[in-house]
TrEMBL record:
Name recorded for this polypeptide: Signal peptidase I
Domain of life, source organism: Bacteria
Topological category with respect to the lipid bilayer: Single-pass type II membrane protein
Species for this entry: Eoetvoesiella caeni
Chemical reaction(s) catalysed: Cleavage of hydrophobic, N-terminal signal or leader sequences from secreted and periplasmic proteins
One GO CC term, this protein: membrane
UniProt-listed Enzyme Commission number(s): 3.4.21.89
Keyword Transmembrane helix included in the entry's annotation: yes
Active site feature: S102, K157
Pfam families xrefs: Peptidase_S26
Length: 295
């Protein structure tokens, strides 16, 4: 969906930009010359009416000769707006809407967020080819990316495993490169999707502390949903999964650990699928108090 909108915006930019350029280089001068010729004829043939009426008729004739075709007027008017939106959305920030509860309690269904498009590098619009490398995702970053199973769909998850990491998620406990990532209980959280309370915990990934949801008593079975790339890098256990993250890929998980379809099921996210880092909730119409930054 995001890619389709980017393509439509690019086509509109090209069309309106081409008309704006042709108008600037040729059409505007032709309209001016036509209007001047009409004025010369008008001035050479007095109408015989009063001064005020003559001035009105002269201006009317000038406006008619200098009138901009509607399609040119629309393109010239909209081109700066489309250019601004295109540059902003392609290289700086892009808005997204959270469609599910897989990132609870950090993000909830209905949050409207902003995504930083330049933090990890500048990409050419539409084809998403990186042309300037400005950095790499860090463990704990919340990323929007194109779903590897269906790249037309945008997903949002948290980076858990970096290239080369060995990620183990077993018995509701996360370990990275043999080191267990500790989490501490921080009360309960009401999860709307399940209409029940689950445990809220704090967890530290790299330098980032964030909250996750866990139901310690519920069993969670893991089964790969497809034969995804680098499937041999993962071993599915009775109560967990162990994966070695390949070069140029990332292992993503939702903060709602028992209710998130993520890398534990469909594998790794290639670097070229990354859209950007989510960092700000700019609106939630059901709960405006949520506006602000998040970790």
């Amino acid at each position: 969906m995001s890619w389709d909108f980017a393509l439509i915006l690019f086509v509109l930019l090209v069309v309106t930009g081409a008309v704006w350029l042709v108008d600037l280089a040729f059409l505007r001068r032709k309209r001016y010359a036509r209007a001047e010729a009409v004025m010369a004829v008008f001035d050479a043939n007095p109408t015989g009416v009063g001064t005020f009426e003559a001035a009105r008729l002269r201006q009317q004739a000038y406006d008619k000769a200098h009138r901009i075709p509607w399609w040119v007027e629309y393109c010239v008017s909209f081109f700066p707006v489309i250019l601004f939106v295109f540059v902003l959305r392609s290289f700086l920030v892009e808005p997204f809407r959270i469609p599910s509860g897989s990132m609870l309690p950090t993000l909830q269904n209905g949050d409207l967020i902003l995504v930083n498009k330049f933090q990890y590098g500048l990409r050419l619009p539409v084809i998403d080819k990186k042309i300037v490398d400005l950095g790499e995702p860090k463990r704990g970053d919340v990323l929007v990316f194109r779903y590897p199973v269906d790249p037309t769909v945008d997903y949002i998850k948290r980076v858990v495993g970096l290239p080369g990491d060995v990620v183990l998620y077993q018995n509701k406990t996360l370990s990275i490169n043999g080191k267990e990532i500790a989490h501490q209980r921080d009360g309960d959280y009401y999860e709307p999707d399940r209409s029940a309370y689950v445990g809220r915990y704090t967890e530290n990934l790299g330098t980032k502390q964030h909250e996750i949801l866990l139901n310690k008593d519920a069993r969670q079975d893991f089964m790969a949903i497809s034969d995804y790339p680098y499937r041999s890098n993962c071993e599915y256990l009775g109560n967990g999964v162990r994966c070695t993250v390949p070069a140029g890929h990332y292992f993503m998980m939702g903060d709602n650990r028992d209710n998130s379809l993520d890398s534990r099921y469909w594998g790794f996210v290639p670097e070229q699928n990354i859209v950007g880092r989510a960092f700000f909730i700019w609106m939630n119409f059901s709960e405006p108090s949520r506006i602000g930054r998040f970790r």
